[in-house]
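Sample 1 of the test manifest.
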Amino acid sequence: QKEQCVDRFAMELEQSRNLSNTIVHIDMDAFYAAVEMRDNPELKDKPIAVGSMSMLSTSNYHARRFGVRAAMPGFIARRLCPQLIIVPPNFDKYRAVSKEVKEILADYDPNFMAMSLDEAYLNITKHLEERQNWPEDKRRYFIKMGSSVENDNPGKEVNKLSEHERSISPLLFEESPSDVPPPGDPFQVNFEEQNNPQILQNSVVFGTSAQEVVKEIRFRIEQKTTLTASAGIAPNTMLAKVCSDKNKPNGQYQILPNRQAVMDFIKDLPIRKVSGIGKVTEKMLKALGIITCTELYQQRALLSLLFSETSWHYFLHISLGLGSTHLTRDGERKSMSVERTFSEINKAEEQYSLCQELCSELAQDLQKERLKKKYLPLLRNC
DNA sequence: GCGGATCAC
DNA sequence: TATGGTGATCCGC
């Protein structure tokens, strides 16, 4: 009886499958580490991580080869990679760069949803519609060449991209097999000479497909910030997020908006890749012999008996490749907190005063929020 | 309604 | 020497 209930629900979900939206997940590559490397050439080809001896926020790809990962204590990372350079975080700078990226994203979806300084979801469905009858010039971008390392060769040719520029913008030359431009929608690079024959103005025209839109976004991000991003394109947020991981770093991947493409992608996908399935859930499901989405679907009846309704509904969504098709404006903050990890030995007396510290910090934060609410709207009118 | 657990970043 | 901090949600009590 329960089994029938589950299968009926699965059928209803299948009926309501919505493939009409194009959702994009943008993810900056090794964001904090990339910013630090950009601004300090000393770090360029060294393994680095951003954080402290107690906790790392992120590492560059060089360091990842040693097993150095985000959320790893710095002193452990140092054991894995003694040459590792640990850079203290500059959050103000990351916020500023993030703002630059967000200005670009807003052009494609003014309602985009930022998940953090380096990640965001976009619904580009509307943009795609409007873009279909855009003239080429509206999709043309001029290429700013890397101001390069001090040019020790003044006679260097200017009419082609140097190796340096290639490496700065591999996006322009990439040919990922999963990333075939649709016919009649070729990706073209134009090299145009201006009045001054010495100065060349190079431009790129992006097509009208979703892939081309996302290439354009990534191109503009790289031109503006000298940082690369990866992206996923899919009919819902759950899939888009998994996709953005597929060709990382500096790549993109699309699941085409048809049921078969979604199912093919989902088939062998380890459930742990899905946002919302963490370490604990992975372990519980593994104990039931469930690793992939296919297995998750096959065990739906069992799961409906072992888990809460919200949980098995969620599992069923995942196993069918379903997810949010619209981005909900994130509303007001619902809570505010302050916490700190204390060193191990603390006298009760000391702990008490630390708690008092935290309380007053929290009180200050709450006060700040209240001031923001009261006076910010007034400032906007000035 | 509260606190613990889980999760994401 | 040394394993973070913030916000959200779900669940059992």
